[in-house]
Amino acid sequence: FVIALATLGDGIPGADGADAVNIVEPENRYRIYLKRQLVKRKSDQDDFESIDSPSLPCTDTPGWTDLLGNTCEWYEQKDEPGCPAYVALWGVEEHCCYCKSNSTNETTNESTLMPSTSEYEEGTTFPTLVPVIAPSGNPIEIQVPTQTPTILTSTERPSDVPISFTPTPSTSSLSLTTTAPTTGQPTTAQPVSEVPSDYPTLLTRTPTLHPSVAQSDSPTEQFLPGELLLSNKELGIELSSGLEAKLIASTNKKLKLVDGKKSSLSFHSRMDGAGIIDLGDRGYVYVSNSEESAGGVYGLQFNLAGEIVDYKTLLSNTKRNCGGGLTPHNTWISCEEVKQGQCWQVSADPNSSNYLHAQKTMIGGSRGGRFESVATDSRIKQSPVYFVTEDSTFGAMRRFQANSTGWHSLHAGGDTSYLRIIDDKFFEWTKNLSAARKSAYAHYQNSEGISFNDGTLYFTTKSTQKLFVLDLESSTYKLETTGLDFQGKGSFNAMPDQVINGDKRFLYFTESGGKTPGVYVRDMRTGKYMTIFAAGDERYLNDETVGVAFSPGRHFMYAGYQISGVLFEFRRTDNLPFP
After folding, report:
1. Contact yes or no for 403/409 (Cβ under 8 A)
2. pLDDT digits (tens, 9 = 90+) for 514-550
3. What are the residue ranges of helices labelled H in 21-180?
4. pLDDT per residue over 211-249, tens digit each?
5. Which of 7, 151, 252, 470 is the most buried (most CB within 10 A)?
């Protein structure tokens, strides 16, 4: 670049001298060269308005969020101007002014538009094309663009470690080159993944450009479902980028409480469906079913910091409590998966008059069934609707519309109907149980997990590995194979089980069987499936992931393996909530 400037001489002749310019100041010589290299000159215009004229004010794209629901404001808090850590992700540069290059960023000042200077070898000073980094004894080398350009991003950073990102068009991986200030010699880390993806992966175990907000000295990583899959050898699982996990409970072992004591009971076996009961400033309770023949429901109480305070039995004398669901009035419904099984309402709040006084609901009717999971549509607060799946070849989904609200709504009057698939597009709710059972046999045998979100009902069928998406307003539905449209690493190819609603963006799925059972998400905007975590070795072969639930602030996620009898706590290393 410097050599090219030197060849300009004292003037740049044009055709017949029409474009001849006498250059006295080095700045003018630089402008002539830059104009010819970067801007198309007009035959009748010799000025440099495209360089000198101020850029138009930049505005963020209204309502834009990235794959994880982060807005432009999130990037302003987590990255430096220009977003060098995340600029390659999800088109953020196109939508957020803060993340645009210096030439278009509305926050760019005059010193950025007119870059700093570097010394020319003959003593003349010329502006450079890149800002000056922290003082260093090593010159800045500007690469000539090739078919795979290297984008140099040099900014003032507290660590004084310049960073350059090198996108690789053929894959989604992102390589990171750092230059240590002590030696001045660059060290290039190899790309972690060469698996094509819709968005790039990030290196892990490398300090990021933004500080961690978690109370930890360890570096943070962006949470990217399905990417990198870091191995936790101790727990035997593989985690998506930006996650960490720890074991908090094991079957037949007493739990360590925050006061240093041990729980009076040992943790239950064959845990299954679970939910969180919010106790306000007293913390929360992780409510967990037991699918043992003796059944039962248990409560693991946490304080606001996520520390274990107590562990108690909440329901006993039942059989094979499998799935369930939360109610609008902060209680848990636990369902028995046995012949003539029933669904029970359980209170986990020690301050409630119904605490330790579980009660059979009207959902199962007089004949009962092999019930699985429950979802609630509470848009009409005074008349909530409960949907219940049944794990049977003739298991008709039932819809119970209560006549009231609160605890008593599940034990007083209500209306029950059943799902009947009409054709490949429409469905209805019918009073004819026999017709609904025939429909279940033909279309949705062995229905499992179920979740409601914004007028849409989602439920899975284990035997056919399908996800039904029911539009409750239009009485139409769509059908898809779970895990078929998969993005990133891992695979969701065994039987889908529970379905847990995320924070309006993701549906979370547990998996039954297979070589690497895990927990997966489905992006409700794109329909793509991605891995949250999966088995990393043979200890979980043909096991079943269970018990996905989130703390009230969604900063902790809980899940485990049923046969192995382990319960994990997951958190994002950036301390942000799960989407």
Report:
1. yes
2. 999 999 999 999 999 999 999 999 999 999 999 999 9
3. 26-38, 49-52, 72-78, 92-95, 110-113
4. 333 343 445 678 999 998 899 999 999 999 999 999 999
5. 470
CA distances from 285 to 300, 326, 576 (A): 5, 12, 21
Q: State how far the Cα of 348 lies from the Cα of 367, in Å rounded to an integer.
A: 27
Residue 178 has pLDDT above 80, yes or no: no
The answer to whether the Cα torsion of 87, 90, 93, 98 is positive or negative is negative
Number of helical (H) and strand (E) elements in the chain, helices listed first: 7, 37
CA 338 to chain centre: 35
Dist. CA 563–CA 566, nearest whole Å: 8
CA 484/CA 506 separation, integer angstroms: 16
Other CB atoms within 10 A of residue 235 CB? 20
Quick: pLDDT tens for 468-521.
999 999 999 999 999 999 999 999 999 999 999 998 889 999 999 999 999 999
Is residue 154 predicted with pLDDT exceeding 70? Answer: no
Cα–Cα distance measured from residue 461 to residue 531, given in angstroms and rounded to the nearest whole number: 20
The pLDDT value recorded for residue 90 is 62
Residue with token string 């993944």: 193
Residues 6 or more apart from 367 whose CB is under 8 A from it? 340
- The secondary structure element, H or E, covering residue 175 is strand 174-179
CA pair distance 300, 154, nearest whole angstrom:
49
Q: What local confidence, expressed as pLDDT, does residue 10 receive?
A: 41
Residue 272 near residue 291, CB atoms below 8 Å: yes
Could you tell me whether strands 456-461 and 447-453 are parallel, antiparallel, or unpaired per DSSP bridges?
antiparallel
Cβ within 8 Å of residue 199, ≥6 positions away = 67, 89, 90, 172, 224
What is the total residue count of the chain? 579
Q: Which two tokens stand for residue 325?
A: 């669901």
CA–CA dist 349, 283 (Å, integer) = 10
347-405 tens-digit pLDDT: 999 999 999 999 999 999 999 999 999 999 999 999 999 999 999 999 999 999 999 99
- CA distances 198 to 168, 175, 428, 530, Å, are 13, 16, 37, 12
How buried is 326 (Cβ within 10 angstroms: 0-12 exposed, 13-18 middle, 19+ buried)? buried
Which pLDDT band, with edges at 50, 70 and 90, does 57 fall under?
confident
Helix or strand (DSSP H, E) at 335: strand 332-341
- What is the DSSP annotation of 498-562? EEEE-SSSEEEEEEESSSS-EEEEEETTT--EEEEEEE-SGGGTT-BEEEEEE-TTSS-EEEEET
